[in-house]
Each structure stands twice: as C-alpha cells, then as structure tokens.
Backbone:
C-alpha cells in the first residue's frame, strides 16, 4: 500500500503517531494527546473545585486524552487570583476538593497536571485584595475579559516589593506541594500568556531597576526562582513543567524583540532548570516563531532547552499535529478548543468519527461549565 513520507495511507495523516505512548519525567502517558489548560471559572465562592468540575475533567480522561493540564489555579491569597470563581490551591479544603478531581481522572485511566497561575497585573477578580500587583506600575494593554466577568481597562498595578515577590514565589512552592498531596501527577508553572511571570519577562511591562528587571537575565529571574522553589518543594520525582509563549491574552501579537537570540536565551535558561517539559503556545503551533520563515517556537524549545516539548496552538488540525511529532518539533501536543468541542476527541479521531468545528458560543456570555452545559443542551 502506498505511503507518503509521513507514513500515512491514502493521503490521510498517520494519526496513529498521536497514540504512541510517551514518558515525561516520571510520568508514563498512554498517548501524545493532552488537554490544554483552560480557565472555566466554575469553582465555588471559596475557590474550591466542585463536583461539576470533577465530572468535566474526568470526561477528558474517559474520552481518551493521555493527560490533562488543569485550568490556571491561583497560588496564594494575596495577589495571584485572576478571576472570580477561579479555583485555588492554597489550603486544605481546596486541596481536598482537588483530590476528588484527580481521583476521578485516575479512575478513568488518565493523568492530571495542575497549572499554577499568578495573574499579577491581569487580575480582574480577586476577593483577597482591592488592588492588583505586578512588576511595575504600568497599565496592561488591552481590556479585561468579559467572559470572565471583567469590563473596561485593567487597573494600574502596584509595583511589587521584594517581600511581595518572595511571598509569590513561596505561594507557587506551597501550592505545588499541596498539588502533590492532593494526588496530581505533576504541576505546570504558568509562565505564559501575559500573567505574572510573563509580565516580569516582558520588556516595557517590567521597568524594574532591581535584580528582577533590566536585562534578560533579570527579567527571567522570577521564573527561575519559582521553578527552583517548586522543585525543591516537590522533590526530584514529581513532574514539573513550564508554559511559555510570546503572545498574551491582552496582546496576542507580542513577539520577543530579539527574535531567535531572545528565544535562545529564554529557552536555554529554562533548559538548565530542573524541569520535565516545556509547554509552548502560539496561535498556530507550526508557524515560524519569527517572521515569515524559520523554526516554530516548539522547535526552538526543543533546540535550545533540550527538554520534552508539549506544543499547543490550533492543533485540532490533526495533519499539523502529526507533522509536529514526525518532524521532531514536539513530543506531545495539547488541544484547547478541540477538547472543549469534543471531550472524546482522541476516541473520535481514532474511530474516524466526525469532528465538529469549535463554536465560540460555548464560552459566551460566561466561559463557565454551566454555560457549556446549556450550549450542549441546545445543540
Ligand atoms: C476558555 C479558555 C480558557 C483558557 N485558559 C487558560 C489557562 O487557564 N491557562 C493557560 O495557560 N491557557 C489558557 N487558555 C489557552 C489554551 O490553553 C490554549 O493555549 C488556546 O486555547 C489555544 O489552543 P487551541 O488552539 O488548541 O484552542 C485558555 C483558552 C480557552 C479557550
């Protein structure tokens, strides 16, 4: 039977590549398909995961995803919470609630990684504080997200003191330890998409004169400290990853100004940390990271960090997803909108069942699970 260079038959992508098991650190994954982290603002008012959330996460494991990265979970009761009804992992009652989620995923044969998120200056709903905090007192670009109950411009944050920075680092570490105790299979430090760690990394957003600002080494210092603190809290065996991006929820088109030199520096620094994987995200994962030609961000991560790479960005295009694996640009891939459309996307793909287009109404007017259930009932 004729096969093309991707090993596919009849011109169909060799989707079986997505179902080859893979090891990420100490974690054995049944396949290469991950659910991308997605904030769903469906926790109770105390930031505890709910039964509905447990059912939601379990459905992805039942649907054949090898691993699920949770929505961004806030890490302290100071400045980290980004959204009202966002879940946290800061105390025993929140940890107990997450244990039910992790147990459900495990019972269905899946794996689950907790994404640890500090919203920083992009916080638009935090009952713990009346103002926001970030690297410098610069109003973030863009507008608050209405699907998460925000409106209008972001407030100008207060520049964090070194004590507040130390407390934020401590929050990540404590939350990672709680995640391990709650039965998660790993943690992912959210260093992407414009949230606190990315704010520190970003020129023009971080104007600090101290050791957390200035050149690239200064601006990535907070991420480095967080990863080291998380690793020392959880020990050597527990999976720890970092998510990294150029684009931001409040600035989709942002690019690292130094192009590939910046990529080499940032990804090289991450590669020297005690990490098990990097999660790269771009709008379309296969596009050149800079300009019209050249390597994708995922490929650059593999080149400069030499770590397993989880690639994200429009990879419900299964031909592109397979290509990234075949080309060695990524080791596994994550789906956001594809997973929202079909919690059983992997099972459907394998059975060659129809795969629908993502419908933004699923997340509108509010991006929570109740809205999605109404959308599904009406479909
Ligand atoms: C509703 C929704 C919520 C999201 N929340 C998060 C989040 O909490 N953390 C994060 O790193 N990315 C978040 N993202 C970004 C996704 O992880 C992913 O990068 C994005 O959807 C692009 O992937 P896709 O093309 O497969 O949808 C969110 C995306 C969506 C659609």
Residues:
């Amino acid at each position: 039977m004729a096969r093309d260079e991707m090993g596919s038959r009849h011109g169909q992508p060799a989707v079986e590549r997505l179902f080859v098991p893979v090891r990420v650190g100490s974690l054995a994954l049944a396949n290469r398909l991950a659910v991308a982290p997605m904030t769903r603002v469906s926790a109770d008012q105390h930031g505890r995961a709910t039964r509905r959330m447990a059912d939601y996460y379990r459905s992805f494991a039942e649907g054949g995803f090898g691993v699920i990265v949770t929505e961004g979970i806030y890490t302290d009761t100071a400045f980290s919470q980004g959204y009202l009804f966002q879940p946290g992992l800061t105390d025993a009652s929140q940890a107990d609630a997450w244990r039910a989620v992790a147990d459900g995923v495990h019972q269905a044969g899946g794996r689950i990684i907790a994404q640890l998120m500090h919203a920083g200056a992009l916080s638009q709903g935090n009952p713990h504080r009346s103002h926001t905090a970030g690297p410098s007192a610069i109003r973030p670009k863009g507008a608050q997200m209405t699907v998460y109950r925000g409106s209008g411009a972001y407030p100008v944050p207060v520049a964090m003191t070194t004590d507040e920075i130390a407390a934020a680092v401590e929050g990540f570490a404590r939350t990672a330890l709680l995640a391990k105790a709650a039965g998660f299979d790993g943690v992912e430090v959210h260093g992407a998409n414009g949230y606190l760690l990315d704010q520190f990394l970003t020129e023009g957003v971080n104007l600090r004169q101290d050791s957390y600002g200035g050149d690239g080494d200064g601006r990535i210092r907070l991420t480095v400290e967080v990863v080291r603190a998380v690793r020392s809290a959880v020990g050597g065996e527990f999976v720890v990853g970092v998510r990294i991006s150029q684009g931001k929820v409040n600035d989709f088109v942002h690019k690292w100004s130094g192009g590939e030199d910046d990529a080499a520096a940032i990804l090289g620094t991450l590669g020297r940390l005690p990490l098990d994987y990097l999660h790269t995200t771009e709008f379309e994962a296969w596009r050149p990271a800079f300009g019209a030609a050249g390597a994708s961000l995922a490929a650059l991560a593999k080149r400069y960090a030499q770590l397993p790479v989880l690639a994200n960005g429009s990879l419900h295009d299964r031909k592109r997803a397979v290509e990234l694996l075949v080309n060695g640009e990524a080791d596994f891939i994550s789906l956001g909108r594809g997973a929202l459309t079909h919690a059983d996307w992997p099972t459907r793909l394998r059975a060659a069942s129809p795969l629908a287009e993502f419908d933004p109404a699923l997340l509108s007017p509010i991006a929570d699970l109740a809205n999605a259930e109404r959308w599904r009932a009406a479909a």
Remarks:
- The pocket of flavin mononucleotide is lined by residues 36-39, 71-72, 115, 190, 192-193, 243, 281, 312-316, 335-338, 363, 367 (CB under 6 Å).
- Confidence is low (pLDDT under 50) at residues 1-11.
